[in-house]
Fold:
Amino acid sequence: MLNTLEPHPGGWERLATTFVWSAAALVTATFCWLLGDIIWHGLSHISWAFLTTPPRNAGREGGIGPILVSTLLILGVCLGVAVPLGVGTAVLLAEFTTDTSLFGRLTRRSLDVLSGVPSIVFGLFGNAFFCKTLGLGFSILSGGLTLACMVLPILIRSTEEGFRTVPTGYRLSAAALGLSRTTTLLYLLLPAAVPGLLVGLVLGVGRAIAETAALIFTSGYVDRMPQSLLDSGRALSVHIFDLSMNVSGGDSHAYASALVLIFALLAINGATSWLTKHWLSRRIVTV
Amino acid sequence: MKPFSATPDTQPWAPLEQRPACCVPKPFIEVEQLSLHYGQKPAFHGVTLAINQGCITAIVGPSGCGKTSFLTSLNRLTDLIAGCRVEGRIHLDGLDVLAPQTDVIHLRRRVGMIFQKPNPFPLSIRKNLEFPLREHGLRDRERLAGAIETGLRDVGLWDEVKDRLDSPALALSGGQQQRLCMARALVLAPEVLLMDEPCSALDPLSSGIVEDLIVSLRSRYTVLIVTHNLAQARRIADYAALFWTQNGTGRLIEAGTAKHIFGTPHEPLTVAYVSGMRG
Ligand SMILES: Nc1ncnc2c1ncn2[C@@H]1O[C@H](COP(=O)(O)OP(=O)(O)O)[C@@H](O)[C@H]1O
Ligand SMILES: [Mg+2]
Structure:
């Protein structure tokens, strides 16, 4: 404390500043190096044909068309299941249980444990439950459902946070105006909680789209164009893994696929922050 | 028991201010032996009070003596607080407020509330009024527009905002926000208006505007206002009640006409409080 009163920062302070700055620089540099490496090796292969044609020769040639479709389908299943379930659970946790109730505590604790479980465990669980027990086999549906289990904890916790940041004043004044609980929830609390939901979505989708271990066991390897949700489909991350580990001479296309994946992630991030800023602020004013 | 007496004040003191003949001294809300606990902690205990129709009743007292809690028990907002227990009886125009079968939505439509901190919804000015009206069944566009205009005129906000009804309510000044909240409550045509320190978060100018507004509500609504501002209570109230914390719980010390409370109080605490020596 005293240091801040001195005209010149003391030695410790200078050291700490240097440390903090170099740590930040290191992190940024690592990311830039990674991105640069991928762009350097991958960019030359990216073309419209690469994005739309099926892979040939185990992925050494051709493109990633069916793989992109499978990835999107898996993501679609995952979100289609996880978002309604996640919002429902978050509403229950934030609005209908107290911090001290047994049910609320139990649910929150389970979610925290679940969000720390390694993805390979989810993969094995999905394989045993969705593929075998429910008989869905290696399919996009199994993969999407497994991913849904994986992202649910993140989604629920951040949506719940979103609900909790809504000032109590809104709830009180809504109740004082004789608004029903449902109306309050739908028109006041939910719009206000959407930013939290979006943050959860970004984190969840980021985790889902980059997932390999959980998908190898559930949606499988097949790199043909899927005909239905019950077909096996190869996700982009699985494709990258396969090209770089199992296919000699697949490196260049692995780099190109990784570049597509990174751009997809950046696009999702950007779109979400844009959504939060523009669309949401307008929406709230005009329910 | 200290209900407001129906007999006219015969004190020789000059009236604090000339009151319009608003007050039919007819109790509209009757509170008997009301107590409220948050978990194990008592907020107030054994309050018996009658609130007359069409009058402004001020509740005064130091912080933490249960004034806000008392107000929120009248419209059952206490239902929203986990662990909050209300005991006793409240009758509002014959309606048993605390009975479990009482329709709270209907009750809260009859008993509007204004909070200490202005809290318009994060919607446009128009939607702030339209939303509760729609919820209570008014769908016709023209009638909605009419009700919104009347509501805003009632609080003197119409001329200030009529050109920007679709801009966010949160962009208004604090005083305007508070008047918007009053309009939002008034458009639902309540019979009672509970106000919890409605001016304490406002600058003196806005505070004066809101105060004039409250005075204009006299005789059309039964107003119950909590205020820290004794001068304000003196200026606007027909009746007054003093709450105080005794033995860790809030109690009603004395209630009566404003003339009585501010002029000739019986209780030593009231004497000390209104003369500014305590509280
Ligand atoms: N939601 C709550 N939970 C627990 N205690 C509360 C709550 N609200 C108020 N209290 C307590 O009840 C007492 C009365 O509070 P309040 O009614 O807000 O008093 P006032 O409005 O007169 O300042 C205070 O001691 C306060 O700490
Ligand atoms: Mg208070």
Observations:
- Chain A touches chain B at residues 98, 167, 169-180, 183, 187-188, 191-192, 284-287 (CB under 8 Å).
